[in-house]
Amino acid sequence: MLRGAVQITASSVRYSVVTSDRSQPGTVTAGFREVATLAGDPEEAESAVAEGVEAARMAGAEVVQLLAAPELRGTRLASRLRIGSRKLGTGDMVFTGGGAAIAASFIASTASLQGDAGPVEGSITCGVLGLGDHSVGLAVGRPGERPSWIGSRPVGLARLAERSRLSDPPEPAQLAAARSAVERALGSFSTPAIDRLVSVSDLSQATRIACGERVDRELLSGTLDDLVGMTADQLGATVGLGPRLARLFPLALVAQLAAVGTFGVDLVPLDPDPAGLGSALGEVSGVGT
Question: Which of 32, 65, 229, 252 meets the CB 3.0–4.6 Å disulfide criterion with 5?
């Protein structure tokens, strides 16, 4: 059976289709569209959602789920999408905030790491860092399993931009202050030792373009140095981002640099997988923050 999902955040609409066959897991197809869902035209966001649903169905998804980021709760767009979901035949929209979503993101993001643990099969501990608008979530555990530890802190990228009064282009002092805030937040976690670390956000592809498939402190620091003086428009043209995400991209690098320094391991930036997240949410129902 193929399952699809469309995920709506403040900056994007993303869809994916996965097979629910445990013996052959994997993503069948995926797509992404940057849309200012909160500040922009709600009709554009609705159109992007409808396109995502149609693309998932064209790929063979028998079930398509709508997932909305917690910052959309109570908005006009959320009300419109709830009505639209009935027309699209997707059922009720699910908001993805809280501990269950962090745990589900861990399962979805680490499932592909199973069987790739090195000499001691299955013994590694993986950390998944979720970079959201309002908060940063972290889950730790064995790849593909329910995490043994989860937590979150209110140091999301949009919140950091607001607190630091981020300019365009950003000033080094602003980025340094943001990094310190994330380091303090992550340093307050009492997590198990982490062998592998991945980050999940809309900015993962841009991170891979700028830094590569696997990043360390030196790569992230060097990339940030290269970005100093670049406006959001210039940066967006370089890494393929629209204006809102391009403005937040330096903060995503800052947050990942803080994580690499805090946990002492390299980091792999992964794209969100809405369908994998939707499937995993059912497995972790009831997980608290």
Answer: 65
Residue 65 burial class via C-beta count within 10 angstroms: exposed 0-12, middle 13-18, buried 19 and up = buried
CA angle 274, 109, 8 (to 5 degrees): 25
CATH 3.30.420.150 domain extents, the chain: 99-270
Looking at residue 78, its pLDDT comes to: 87
Instruction: Please classify residue 120 by burial: count the beta carbons closer than 10 Å to its beta carbon, then call 0-12 exposed, 13-18 middle and 19+ buried.
Output: exposed
Provide the CATH topology of domain 2-95. Nucleotidyltransferase; domain 5 (3.30.420)
For the record, the structure tokens of 167 come out as 């300019």
pLDDT digits (tens, 9 = 90+) for 127-168: 999 998 888 999 999 988 889 999 999 999 999 999 988 999
DSSP tag of 170: P
- 3-class SS of residue 31: strand
User: So what's the pLDDT on residue 114?
Assistant: 56
pLDDT for position 70: 87
Single-letter residue type at 178 = A
